[in-house]
Amino acid sequence: MKNKISAVVAASGIGARTRLDIPKQFYEIDGVPILAYTVRTLCEIKKINEIIVAVPEEYLLYTSDFVKKLGLSKVSKIIPGGETRQKTVLKCLCEVDGNADFVLIHDGARPFVDKEDILNCIADAEKFGASAVGARCADTLKKSDFDGFITETVDRENVYRIYTPQIFKKNLILNAHENADKNAVNVTDDCALIEKYGTKVKITETERNNLKITTRDDIMYAEAVLKWE
């Protein structure tokens, strides 16, 4: 039987490190906001049934306008985000279709996500219950003390940079988020919650660029790549 998959796009951050006058996800490249590039890619995945987008409250109308203008028809709901990314994701999970089997969680500021990586991640989630796109770390990694001096070289053999999307059985991720909220558990990504509650997450390995736009340099890179596409 075909699984129903809902996608959640977390796009309610303010993006202070880009030093822009607006949140980075609403910066326009060729007249199209970065967030729209991200959502458009998800819309093109046939296995995704609906998309829920969380944005700052003051950008609800703007988001609704470009969703209609660009024909992003799989967007079923646009909601205000929470105080943190974690709270934003929980709010989105509470809005997901009750019949959904899996939830795909993606950062709104990752417009370069590859469709093949998404499909591979979905396949891994359907097989293992939880998956996340990641790339092996090519750089040498060091640990430091509080004064910034190297204390240790980290073996990078099994070290990955974890991206989004991250995909989970709906009840698994919803229960993990609800428990974390109830017990004031804070983590940096959704995989960490799943790990904390004892479930293994399969890494969907990629060699493709899946940059999360964070700095002004990232904006310049995005302009070059997205205009070229």
UniProtKB/TrEMBL annotation:
CDD domains: CDP-ME_synthetase. It is an enzyme of class 2 (transferase). The keyword Transferase applies. Pathway: Isoprenoid biosynthesis; isopentenyl diphosphate biosynthesis via DXP pathway; isopentenyl diphosphate from 1-deoxy-D-xylulose 5-phosphate: step 2/6. It comes from the Bacteria. GO terms for biological process: isopentenyl diphosphate biosynthetic process, methylerythritol 4-phosphate pathway. The record marks 156, 212 as: Positions MEP for the nucleophilic attack. Catalyzes the formation of 4-diphosphocytidyl-2-C-methyl-D-erythritol from CTP and 2-C-methyl-D-erythritol 4-phosphate (MEP). Its EC number is 2.7.7.60. Keywords: Isoprene biosynthesis, Nucleotidyltransferase, Transferase. InterPro entries: IspD, IspD/TarI, IspD/TarI_cytidylyltransf_bact, ISPD_synthase_CS, Nucleotide-diphossugar_trans. The record marks 17, 24 as: Transition state stabilizer. This is 2-C-methyl-D-erythritol 4-phosphate cytidylyltransferase. It holds the Pfam family IspD. The keyword Nucleotidyltransferase applies. GO terms for molecular function: 2-C-methyl-D-erythritol 4-phosphate cytidylyltransferase activity. Belongs to the IspD/TarI cytidylyltransferase family. IspD subfamily. It catalyses: 2-C-methyl-D-erythritol 4-phosphate + CTP + H(+) = 4-CDP-2-C-methyl-D-erythritol + diphosphate.
